[in-house]
Specification:
Length: 149
C-alpha cells in the first residue's frame, strides 16, 4: 500500500512540475505576441482589424519588436493599411508596450542602426542592441502603456 501511494504521489508531483515548467517557460516573444491584439484593440477606433505580414524584428529576454501591417477602418469607414512596430519592453521589472505607426514615425530598429553606425557606414552589433533597448524603452514609457512590474 505504501509503495502504491508513493508512486501515485510521485506521478502527481511530476505532472504538477511539468505543468509549472510549461506555464513559466513562455518567452518574452510569446508574451508580446499574446499582448499585441489586446493592445491594438485598445487603441484602434473599430475592433474590426487584422494583422498581416507579422515578423519578429528583434527579440531577447526583455525586448520584443514585432513589425506588421495593420488593416483597420479609417474615419470614413474604408479600410487602410499601416506599417507598424509593436514594442514590448521590460527594464527593472517595469514593462511597457507601444505601437509605432511607421507611416508617421521612423522605425525603432532603423533608428537604432543609424545611431550605432561607425564612420564607415556599418554598425556595431553591441552598440545597436544597447541603442535599441534604450530607444524602445524610452518610446514605450513616453507614449505607450504600463503593463506590469
Amino acid at each position: 500500500m505504501f509503495t502504491a501511494t508513493f508512486a501515485a504521489m510521485k506521478r502527481i508531483f511530476l505532472l504538477l512540475l511539468t505543468a509549472t515548467l510549461l506555464f513559466t517557460a513562455c518567452s518574452f516573444k510569446d508574451k508580446a505576441e499574446r499582448r499585441l491584439n489586446g493592445y491594438l484593440s485598445s487603441i484602434v477606433a473599430d475592433p474590426d482589424f487584422s494583422i498581416e505580414e507579422k515578423e519578429i524584428a528583434y527579440e531577447d529576454g526583455s525586448l520584443c519588436i514585432i513589425q506588421f501591417k495593420l488593416r483597420a477602418k479609417n474615419a470614413f469607414g474604408g479600410y487602410v493599411f499601416s506599417k507598424c512596430e509593436y514594442i514590448l519592453s521590460r527594464e527593472d521589472d517595469l514593462t511597457y508596450e507601444h505601437v509605432v505607426f511607421l507611416d508617421k514615425e521612423t522605425s525603432i530598429c532603423e533608428l537604432a542602426k543609424w545611431r550605432a553606425r561607425d564612420g564607415l557606414g556599418s554598425y556595431d552589433e553591441g552598440k545597436y542592441r544597447d541603442e535599441l533597448h534604450r530607444l524602445a524603452f524610452d518610446v514605450a514609457v513616453k507614449y505607450g502603456s504600463f503593463v506590469e512590474h
